User: What shape does this take?
Amino acid sequence: MAEKKVIHFKIKRQNGPTGAPYWEEFKMDYAPNHNVVSALMYLREHPVNVDGKKIEPVVWDSNCMEEVCGACSMIINDVPRQACAALIDDLEQPIVLEPLTKFPLIRDLMVDRQKMFDALLKIKAWVPMDGSWDIHRHAPLIAAGEQSVRYLFSRCMTCGCCMEACPQFHQDSAFIGPAPLGQVKMHNSHPTGKYANEDRLHAIMGDGGLTDCGNAQNCVKVCPKDIPLTDAIAQLGRQTTMQWLRDMFVK
Amino acid sequence: MADAAVDPNALGERYHFLIRRLHSLSGIVPVGVFLCVHMSVNASVLAGPARFQFAVDQIHKLANLGILKPVEVLFIFLPIAFHAYVGAWIWLTGKPEIMRYPHLDNIRYAVQRWTGIIAIVFILAHLWHVHWIIPGGTEFDAHAAAESAVNAMASLWVGPVYALGVLCAVFHFANGIWTFLITWGVTIGPGSQRRSGWVCGIIGVVLALMGLAALAKFKSMDVSALQHPPVTATGKVEPGAQTTGH
Ligand code: SF4
Ligand code: SF4
Ligand code: FES
Assistant: This one.
């Protein structure tokens, strides 16, 4: 980089859920150790596009700034990932920012990931603690190996990258998507989480459930937390097969 | 065991599960098994026309029992139609983006859809070409199997069309076994999926070679050298000529 060091952004913008998308370019002075969110913050303070025109600042979502909340997911140079963890020094310029395409757009780079949270409710992504009686007095034992597998799944931050990459998940598909399926697998393997296994399996055996996965395995490749989603999907294939047989022959 | 929290429309929902699983199963049994039998019978021509005739005769024992047509319809045509119908619907639910995510698995996902479509179009063309169920073409004559096949394969368009059709059907089947094993929860981790990938790949290569070799043989075989009676253009044995024992 011989010329004057700048950070060059090309951002796909849209003024609201129904507006028409347009591209806008920005150049800001280079400073070391920027990530995409900190650079966007700078642009918010200096909302001037490449033509020197003052514009309304770019809107995006972010929160934790350490890749654990999942709010800042966007498509950066064609890869769905967290803007806070995307270091400017590692990115090829111009840096192209686009909003996730599989969730309803709110404005510019901000989308509504509610569908994923609804799915977590649907699959009961929690461990029952107690009901009208005490479920357990002591913390249940989990083998160390099982713990480390469950730990992988526990790192899911509902960022939506896996959903974005999945060819079977989009705005007019009923498919629940890979992230909630990973959570079904995790909660089904918990000693007291198991109490709701049947409900979780039934929740993914209907329309838009597990069977709508097409095994493209994009999800596992884009997950920033390296969550073994395709292991979970195959594991659930086995669990739903058994559940179906139980429904057929035991009930 | 019943739970109040189960979805009210659980019955309809389970129907969805059943259809998807039957779709997965039907691709292996009976459709995939039929593909293997068909490819093996075709490949038997590599051992000579008599061997091919023998293989065809084994199948046509069913015809002598009068059950060939019902067996064909029940165990071949209906399952293929079901598999294709559900498959077309699945195809419509997906939006592959192979440019943005050019991983092998994703490409395989997209190719599985394209090969399925090409295979079903080819199967329809193939049935029209040599089978009674779609009238218009040349009906295959089981009593003069090699001659009939060679005559049917003589046209110029047959070579590329059949080669493409066979390759697509075989890929769709081999990749289908791989996804079948995931769908039913047999291969779970990446290691087992990699190993099953090799096995499915080998099955695919072997079936493809069998199909292409048989096609090449049919295209290059000299029918006039056979001791079987001559065959007319419609594939019918000339009247009065008697074939091997039938
Ligand atoms: S599974 Fe991975 S990619 Fe998907 S939402 Fe969770 S953290 Fe994000
Ligand atoms: S493996 Fe299934 S869930 Fe994952 S990207 Fe492919 S279709 Fe989507
Ligand atoms: S701000 Fe939380 S993941 Fe980026």
